[in-house]
């Protein structure tokens, strides 16, 4: 099931560089009263899709106007393992996922591609997680089922820094494909350190033999401005579309709240765009303002 877009994400990735803003979180929401979220325990959760749907819709429509080709659901944290930190049960998780797709589909109006965000849970399997691998697979599978049957073009396994969590999410995707009897397109983004390694210790190119077996339609990296050479090395071994998602916040404390100037985006993206290395690019989990989204779109379409 998909959102009804006439062009598949896999096809679009091969035709042009897509602008993907993978933060469905509006920075202005940090100032919302807890009641807007449904109470203090739900602050920062996908519950906003239900309690203040109009705010989520407004932000998604701003992303469309700013030039985003791909809209992402506000569903990070709607897997049961992570959602339990908000005191949410499986029924509420399903409501979050379904509502997040409904909002994005309305904003897309059939003119934008829609992806469902499945984020790495806060329980890291590579670091003595509290939950078992089977628990993670079950939680990821339930979220992927919710998002896919609600109508998305692809699943985005977003900002994974632990390879064991990523494998669990990929295995969950295969389970849903077998259950539903249809392929579920998956794009993957990895979160890396300044040394271009994942938190679990691997360099992204070292994971490529594993990832290739799962046939992702695209693979990308969330960075703070590094990793260009790694992208070039990866391009030498695969024709799978690759992309870069930039976070304008400096990587290390104490400057996490300081945003880099918009001109920094051009410094990071222009060499890669000029070399035709990127199939998609955009912003990572931190969006200082809508102007940054406009700046990325302008670079892509220059």
What does this structure look like?
With 302 residues, the chain is α/β, with parallel strands linked by helices. The protein has a single domain, classed as Homocysteine-binding-like domain (TIM Barrel, Alpha-Beta Barrel). 44% of the residues lie in helices and 14% in strands. The protein contains twelve helices and eight strands. The protein has helices at residues 9-15, 34-37, 48-51, 53-66, 80-83, 90-108, 133-151, 163-180, 204-213, 228-237, 263-274, 290-300, and strands spanning 18-21, 70-72, 113-119, 154-160, 186-191, 218-223, 242-246, 280-283. It has an eight-stranded parallel beta sheet with strand order 1-8-7-6-5-4-3-2, sandwiched between helices. The longest helix is centred in the N-terminal third of the chain and has 19 residues, at 90-108.
Summarize the structure.
With 302 residues, this protein is α/β, with parallel strands linked by helices.
Main-sheet strand order equals: 1-8-7-6-5-4-3-2
Biggest sheet, open or closed, and with what strands and sense? 8 strands, parallel
Name the CATH class: Alpha Beta
SSE string = HEHHHEHHEHEHEHEHEHEH
CATH superfamily: Homocysteine-binding-like domain
**Helix content range of the residues, please?**
40-55%
The CATH topology comes to TIM Barrel
How far apart the termini lie comes to 34 Å
CATH architecture: Alpha-Beta Barrel
Roughly what fraction of the amino acids lie in strands?
A: 5-15%
Number of strands: 8
Shape: globular
Uncertain stretches of 5 or more adjacent residues: none
Radius of gyration: 18 Å
Distinct helical segment count: 12
Instruction: Report mean pLDDT, rounded to a whole number.
Output: 90
Number of domains: 1
- Helix and strand content put the structural class at alpha/beta
